[in-house]
Structure formats: C-alpha cells, structure tokens
Amino acid sequence: MSIQTLEQFISEQQTQFPQAKGEFTRLLQAISLAAKIVHREVNKAGLADILGKLGNTNVQGEEQQKLDVFADHYFMDALERVSECCYLASEEHEDGIDLTKRNKYAAGKYMVYFDPLDGSSNIDANVSVGTIFSIYKRISTGEELQSVDFSQTGREQVAAGYVIYGSSTMLVYSTGKGVNGFTLDPSIGEFCLSHPRLKIPEHGKTYSVNESNYNQFSIAVKQYLQYCKEIDKDSNRPYSSRYIGSLVADFHRNMIQGGIFLYPDTFQYPNGKLRLMYECNPLAFIAEQAGGIATTGENPILDIIPTKLHQRTPLIIGSKNMVEMVEKFIVEFSNEE
Ligand code: P6P
C-alpha cells in the first residue's frame, strides 16, 4: 500500500495539466498548513479550556482566543504570505482585504474567500466543525481590483474545498477536475489521499434540515419533508433525519453516504441563513463536481451573480435524485404558495 501526500498529488496534477504552475500549489500548501494548525487547536479545545480557566492563557501561553478568531488568524496569516494572493475575504471580517493596495506590484491573481471555522458554536459540545474556502482568479489587470472581479458567479471558481475537523481531519477539494479527499495523518503531519475521485451517491437515505423551522417553510418544502417521512418500501422511505447543525459535517456525510441538506429561507432569514461566497458556492462547486446538485430551490447556486460579500442564499444540496425530487415538488406546488 502506498501513501500519496497532498503535496505529491498536487505536483502530479501539475505534470498532467502543464498550464498549472506552482502558484496554485503554494496557495493549497498555505491552506493545508493553516488547517493543520487549526486541527491541533480544535483537538485540544477541551484541554485548552480547562487550562484556560486556570489563567486565561492556553497551553502555548497565548491569550485564550475564541477558536474561530484563532482559525481566522492562521488562515489569514498563511494566505497573506502567498504572493499569488491578491484578495482575501473571511466570514470574520466585514470587508475583504485588497492585497494589491499593500503592494501594487503584487503579482497575485488569486482571490480567496473563506469561512475559517464554520459551526464553531458547536466546539464545546465536541461536534465536528469545518473550514470552507473558495478560490477565483482576478479578471481585471490594472493595479487595483475592479468590480468585475467581485461579481464572478460560483461557476467561475478555479478551486473550492473544505476541511472537516471531526473524528479525523480531512481536506476535500476540487479544481474542476473531480473531487479528492485527503485525511490528515498527525503522526507524519501530512494530508494523505484517502478518498480519490469522490462521487456523491445519486440517492441517499437521510434528509438534513432544522425541523424547528417547519412552519416557516414553503408548501413545496413542507410537502417534500412529508414525502421523506412516508412509508414506502420500494423507495426506501421513510428516510432518516440527520441534522448536526454544522454545515460541513452535514454536507460531508452526504458526500460519503448520499443524502440531502436543506436550509430554505425562513422568517428570520428571508434570503436563507447560509452565506453565498464562502459557504454555498464552494460546497455547490464540490457537489456538482461530485455528481450532485446545489440549488436555491429556484436556480443553481453556481449561477447567482454576487452583489455583496456576506450575502445569504437558501441552499438545497446533495444527491442528484433527491434534489431533483425537491425541485419537482417546487414546480408542482409553485402556484399554491
Ligand atoms: P441553525 C452554524 O452556525 C451554521 O452556520 C452552519 O454550520 C449550520 O448548517 C447552520 O448554521 C445551522 O443553523 O439555524 O439550524 O442552527
């Protein structure tokens, strides 16, 4: 049995795609480094808390930071050092950072949007959390970034991926040529190829939704959730309900086992709760590359033209057959809304 590390995989990909130069490698290496640092911190969160309570510092003697602030710092720091980066935007910051302003000769052409630690409110319950990242190439060529750079749809992503800090830490990403998963082997400090050419099963047995919002859903979504609960042996129903409340964990389960995740719009979130640029677009890119579907319920997520950095969108994502079934309900009940 041979081990193939993430670095080896990327360099092999480069030989296959000569147009790919080392610049993308450095970007992924930076993400991988930050992910290993966050892995270390997440995996001793409980310990750090205990020690933190003793004197408000963590085991490194650093000021005890909230883990999402910690994660944001290390992803920002790692990516700022990559000269190919020209723009960084994080869920943790109101505005993105235009790195071309810092050094107008910065040759950087990659724009990176990321959610450093999604689901972090679950950390003290020891629930899996994740980092989500989305990478674009700038379109403009002048000194400063232009609006055209920021209005690229998710279909223009050159890469997207997530890290899940769970029973093991995995990095799953795509550059538009399929999806590959790498599991961190802490004993050698390397992400190793563990899930080559990942495909979402066309059908699954689980549906994932916060049922407490049921009364706020459209008739079509309500009808679909009833459909999931009906007893019908031929179509393997009722499905099982699985909702972790951590997007990356719920999404990754569906990647591996098949299933559907829904976060429709609600009274509290009339445009949906989840963020387009650094949650829904990257996961939609991964889902489509793996044979799945990601939609707002009306349109493909990847076709949305962004207007704001932190804009939200409804999200229905997962196994092809299951998402297509929801879309059928939406068409069938559209005139009853
Ligand atoms: P709710 C976590 O706060 C998060 O952003 C996602 O990770 C998760 O899918 C969603 O919110 C859960 O939201 O409203 O069901 O608690």
From TrEMBL:
Gene3D superfamilies: 3.40.190.80, Fructose-1,6-Bisphosphatase, subunit A, domain 1
Protein's pathway: Carbohydrate biosynthesis
Superkingdom per UniProt: Bacteria
Residues given in the record as substrate binding sites: D118, G119, S120, S121, N210, Y243, K273
Cofactors (names): Mg(2+)
Cofactor note (record): Binds 2 magnesium ions per subunit.
Location relative to the cell: Cytoplasm
GO molecular function: fructose 1,6-bisphosphate 1-phosphatase activity
CDD domains attached to this UniProt entry: FBPase
Residue span, Fructose-1-6-bisphosphatase class 1 C-terminal domain: 200-329
Main location: cytoplasm
Pfam families in UniProt: FBPase, FBPase_C
Annotated catalysed reactions: beta-D-fructose 1,6-bisphosphate + H2O = beta-D-fructose 6-phosphate + phosphate
Location of the Fructose-1-6-bisphosphatase class I N-terminal domain: 5-196
Enzyme class: hydrolase
Family membership noted in the UniProt record: Belongs to the FBPase class 1 family.
Assembly and oligomerization: Homotetramer.
Protein name as catalogued: Fructose-1,6-bisphosphatase class 1
Organism encoding this protein: Sphingobacterium daejeonense
Highest classification ranks of the organism: Bacteria, Pseudomonadati, Bacteroidota, Sphingobacteriia, Sphingobacteriales
Gene that encodes it: fbp
